[in-house]
Design brief:
Layout: E1 3-9, E2 26-27, E3 30-31, H1 32-41, E4 48-53, H2 58-67, E5 73-78, H3 83-91, E6 99-104, H4 112-121, E7 127-133, E8 140-141, E9 147-149, E10 157-166, H5 167-179, H6 189-194, E11 200-204, H7 215-227, E12 245-249, H8 254-265, E13 269-273, H9 284-298, E14 303-306, H10 321-349, E15 352-356, H11 369-388, E16 395-401, H12 407-413, H13 424-436, E17 443-446
Parallel strand pairs: 1-4, 1-6, 4-5, 7-11, 12-13, 12-14, 14-15, 15-16, 16-17
Antiparallel strand pairs: 2-3, 6-10, 7-10, 8-9
Helix pairs in contact: 8-13, 9-10, 10-11
Length: 448
């Protein structure tokens, strides 16, 4: 018996008014459907993923599958003319005793909790829906646009996906609907209810599990991706660092130093540079010479990390322009320099780059507006470059640690209770796991 998920991606995006279906629009460095697939790919309860796609965009979907490393995507099927037809097509080839989730491709924020609760509910019920309470009053109108009824909203829910079924039950519902030509249904649970085939249990959904339907939803989704940056504490084994060549800029103290020490514990060959040993990330020529020396000695460079940064306080009107330019040069242009000089070497090794942002990238902070804006720029840089680097197989990500006990933190904010701060060793471990992962274009959130 297997646990399946069918991802319905056969819509044409008419309501969004875009020239391509909404599931193929890119947000936060990836198409919406890639974000959705990854949720199920990473869930331990899912055995196989079936994607049902609009035939006109099947080659687009094939290209997405080719550039990713999905292990659970087993079938890519042409969809039908309606959602109902596409659901039934997805069910083909599944055993009646199997369990299946049916999910909209444009709901990329479905949580692990929802998925797990659906499978748990299927242990007792044959059909499961996901829904949330409604904060709005729902009215029923007649053909003259007059209110006919105002139902008690305490009994109303707003449906979401996934919907979960024993395969035999939902197959039977579809077959029965074909026999009497019943098509006025917008989801699969509606068929089970129509033919009274099973009780449908309702799992609590989440407000962030939105369906991206209209243009306004794209802006909301982009914001949600920012606020829900990845918490990646992956299973990449750090002994995979053995004999890897790592170059760290800004690595003589703080997080950079912790990455240096942690990587060496696992056998990595690590070079660390900073202003203290004559390497300034704002000096492009020096960076070129630095990497040439490392490559000449090691004949390869696998990973490059830039932790160099500065944090200065002050209202913009009271700060000297050279001071502002210096902060931008170190925090942003310095990162661009590091990335640019890295490309020839990482193209050869198909390696990775790691930059460092801050929680302030989501919202500018008074007195630290220049710092916040440079960190926001870094995130946009990472997201854009991740797509530019696809052909070279270079991965690039941004680490977003919460308040961390580092010399720069202490110099900028003075004494803070140490128990309230993240330690740099944990940031180092997550950073190295990220380098070893297949992730690219992501903001990796590190919390205590």
């Amino acid at each position: 018996m297997k646990n399946h998920v069918i991802i319905l991606a056969s819509g044409n995006g008419e309501r969004l008014g875009n020239h391509i279906p909404k599931q193929f629009i890119k947000i936060s460095g990836k198409t919406i459907i890639e974000h959705t697939i990854e949720v199920f790919e990473n869930n331990i309860n899912i055995d196989e993923i079936t994607i049902v796609v609009n035939p006109n965009y099947k080659t687009v979907m094939e290209d997405i599958l080719l550039k990713n490393h999905y292990k659970k995507v087993k079938r890519l099927l042409n969809g039908g003319k309606t959602r109902k037809e596409s659901s039934f097509i997805g069910l083909s080839g599944m055993n009646d005793s199997d369990k299946v989730l049916i999910h909209d491709a444009v709901r990329p924020f479905v949580s692990e909790r929802i998925i797990n609760d659906c499978f748990k509910a299927l242990e007792r019920y044959n059909a499961v829906d996901v829904a949330i309470t409604t904060a709005d009053t729902i009215i029923k109108i007649n053909e003259d646009e007059l209110i006919e009824d105002i139902p008690d909203r305490n009994t109303l829910r707003r449906g979401q996906t996934p919907q979960a079924f024993r395969v035999g039950i939902i197959k039977k519902a579809h077959i029965m609907s074909q026999s009497d030509d019943f098509n006025s249904v917008t989801d699969d649970c509606g068929l089970v209810v129509k033919y009274n085939l099973a009780d449908v249990f309702v799992v609590n959904g989440e407000t962030k599990n939105i369906k991206i339907t209209y243009k306004e939803d794209l802006y909301l989704a982009d914001r949600l991706f920012q606020l829900n940056s990845n918490k990646y504490y992956g299973d990449a084994q750090l002994n995979g660092l053995d004999n890897k060549v790592i170059v760290i800029f800004g690595g003589t103290k703080g997080i950079g130093e912790s990455i240096y020490l942690e990587a060496r514990k696992y056998g990595a060959i690590v070079y660390t540079f900073s202003r203290e040993n004559g390497v300034d990330v704002t000096n492009y020529e020096v960076l070129v010479e630095t990497l040439e020396r490392v490559f000449s000695k090691e004949q390869r460079i696998d990973y490059i990390v830039n932790t160099a940064g500065t944090l200065k306080m002050g209202k913009i009107e009271s700060r000297e322009i050279h001071d502002i330019v210096d902060e931008i040069n170190i925090n942003y242009l310095g990162a661009i320099n590091v990335v640019k000089v890295s490309i020839p070497y990482l193209s050869l090794s198909q390696g990775g780059i790691l930059l460092f942002t801050s929680s302030s990238y989501t919202r500018g902070r008074p007195l630290y507006s220049i710092y916040s804006s440079t960190k926001s720029a870094l995130v946009n840089l990472v997201q854009g470059l991740s797509e530019e680097f696809v052909q070279q197989n270079i991965r690039i990500n941004a680490i977003n640690p919460e308040r961390t006990n580092t010399p720069m933190r202490r110099e900028s904010f003075g004494f803070e209770p140490i128990e309230t701060l993240l330690n740099s060793e944990k940031v180092a471990q997550v950073s190295l796991q990220t380098l070893l992962s297949d992730l690219s274009g992501q903001v990796i959130d590190v919390r205590k």
